[in-house]
Amino acid sequence: MADLILHHYPTSPFAEKIRLILGYKNLSWKSVIIPMIMPKPDMVALTGGYRKTPVLQIGADIYCDTALICDVLEHLQPTPSLYPAPGKGLERTLAHWADTTLFWTAMAFNLQPKGVAQMFGDLPPEAARAFGEDRKAMGAGMVRLRPADAAAAYRSYLRRLSDMLHGRPFLLGDAPTVADFAAYHPLWFTRVRTSVLADILDNVPDVLNWMDSMAAIGHGSMEQFNSTDAIAIAAASTPADLHDDIFQDEHGIPLGSRVSISGESFGPEPSEGELIAATRMHYTLRRTDPRAGTVHVHFPRIGYCLKAAAQA
Ligand SMILES: N[C@@H](CCC(=O)N[C@@H](CS)C(=O)NCC(=O)O)C(=O)O
User: Fold this and answer.
1) Which of 111, 266, 298 to mutate to test the pocket of ligand 1 (most atoms within 8 A of CB)?
2) Residue 298 has pLDDT above 70, yes or no
3) 131 Cα: distance to centroid of ligand 1 (angstroms)
4) What is this structure's pTM?
5) pLDDT digits (tens, 9 = 90+) for 264-282
6) Which residues of 207-220 are buried (b: 16+ CB within 10 A; e: fewer)?
7) Is residue 212 located within the same domain as residue 227?
8) Of 216, 242, 259, which residue constitutes the final position of a domain?
9) Whose CA is nearest to atom 14 of ligand 1?
10) What is each CA distance from 298 to 33, 64, 71, 250, in whole angstroms?
11) pLDDT tens readout for residues 12-37
12) Is the domain of 23 the same as that of 97?
């Protein structure tokens, strides 16, 4: 198997979701640390524009978004499964709720002034300002909950998770599923990154015990790597054959068209290229970069907007 290269940074909650899944599947991987805010020239050399964290690289194949990365890791290492039967639909749907509603509620709570002060306490004030401006631009048009509203909703969501853990070790049964990894990472941020606010978890001891079990999974076997070598690997590799040639046309955009793909809400930065696959769940773009050569950049359909490049 070609090396798994994860482009991420230590404090990213979505990256923590994938690091734990790499651990759960007992995989070895290479770690490339990327900047927390733009510019990210090395990462964009691979993705063509997409800048969210994390991104998984396998040779000249670049996988954007953790929902897609989960599918790729499941394909490469089917056991233990992230989607055990029965209940795949429930697992994915709960994971999607956690990656969206729970995540944004938890982050609105975590990023209240007290949390931000802890995150940037040792750094010059410009660091917090630059982070705030970067994230504001990424979330243009999104409704941000105020801390008090977020706190109330977060408490309710934590009670619901606690209720699900009554009499069972993981959210949907005896083993973790994709839903556990998705629900864990925003809470991990509260507990680890903004620990001044972590007393919100004290009312839900079952959730804390479950978090301990999730943390104990670990991150698998990780080796430090760097972005220059990762780009060189992409340039020296040929993208994998597309194994799923189903073309599901929802947009009237034929394969071979120049298109752009961008996040539907957070992170609007588009990636452009030639549309070479549009399966039931994924898109693939082919693009050629001066440094990374010809790469295939893959996106999930859910959460992303496809447009003909001329309309973009
Ligand atoms: N739906 C995306 C969300 C990823 C996401 O929002 N990641 C955050 C960090 S946890 C991010 O990209 N923040 C801005 C950045 O890192 O540049 C996924 O599942 O990968």
Assistant:
1) 266
2) yes
3) 13
4) 0.97
5) 999 989 999 999 999 999 9
6) beebbeebeebebb
7) no
8) 216
9) 52
10) 20, 6, 12, 17
11) 999 999 999 999 999 999 999 999 99
12) no
